[in-house]
Amino acid sequence: MDYSSFEGVSAAEILSWALSTFGDSFAIATSFQKEGMVIVDLAARIQPRVRVFTLDTGRLPQETHLMMDAVRERYGIALETVQPDVVEVAEMVAARGLNLFYQSAENRQLCCEVRKVRPLMRKLAGLQAWATGLRREQSPGRAGTPKVEKVESGVKVSPLADWTDAQVDRYIAEHNVLTHPLYEHGYASIGCAPCTRALEPGESGRAGRWWWEQDTKKECGIHISAEGLVRRA
Ligand code: SF4
């Protein structure tokens, strides 16, 4: 199938197609940032029982757990949480410490691999298609994000790929979409508590993620491994 034909298709139409094509083998991955919540809201209007999952890394801020409760209550969905392997985490922490990510880029990537990438891969093995909140505006590495693409793990759907910040904010305002409480505290991108901070004056985008790293791309790897590509998004 030529997925490039989805380029001119709206986010709601893409989600409608994914839901009807893949049924329960389609799920939305979200960390409860604005984009993910817009996708959940759009999809729930089409299919109220849409599957939604999140990676519970074990290092999430309490505000994200509060969002999980709020999403369950708002949409009445059985939010699926995906945990890392406890043995892998225990071995990593025993060898390198709980806060290993501050010590080196290699340690940070290992932690993301154990707590995010491998759990995601295990989850995707049970799905045919999944949706992400990637947008081309978010970073240079995401500028080429297709709306629908065939990747090693299945079909990856990014319905908001061509949306602007303003479009996301407008949808949220018009539909009273739930928003993560940390946005009110200056966060622009939200992940694990020890690796995410509010933006400082003049900073933008993903500068609040892994801020102590100077020479690495601000990605955890889930959009690399899931694609089976060497591309660093
Ligand atoms: Fe570990 Fe930080 Fe990556 Fe979370 S964001 S998995 S705490 S390195």
Structure notes:
By secondary structure, this protein is α/β, with parallel strands linked by helices. The chain has a single domain (3-195), classed as Rossmann fold (3-Layer(aba) Sandwich), CATH 3.40.50. Helices cover 36% and strands 10% of the residues. It has 7 helices and 6 strands; from the N terminus they run αβαβαβααβββαα. Strands 3-2-1-4-6-5 form a 6-stranded mixed sheet. The two termini are 24 Å apart. Bound molecules: iron/sulfur cluster. The site of iron/sulfur cluster has 13 residues, from helix 5.
Summarize the structure.
It contains 7 helices and 6 strands; from the N terminus they run αβαβαβααβββαα.
Query: Would you list the SSEs in sequence order as H and E?
Result: HEHEHEHHEEEHH
What ranges have pLDDT less than 50 throughout 5 or more consecutive residues? 228-233
Query: Ligands bound here?
Result: iron/sulfur cluster
Oligomer: single chain
Number of strands: 6
CATH superfamily heading: HUPs
Helix content class: 25-40%
User: Which fold does the CATH topology refer to?
Assistant: Rossmann fold
List the domain count as a whole number: 1
Give the overall shape, derived from the CA principal axes: globular
Give the N-terminus to C-terminus distance in angstroms.
24 Å
Q: Summarize the main sheet.
A: 6 strands, mixed
Instruction: Strand order, main sheet: write it out.
Output: 3-2-1-4-6-5
Radius of gyration: 17 Å
Q: What integer is the average pLDDT?
A: 92
Q: Which architecture does the CATH hierarchy give at level 2?
A: 3-Layer(aba) Sandwich
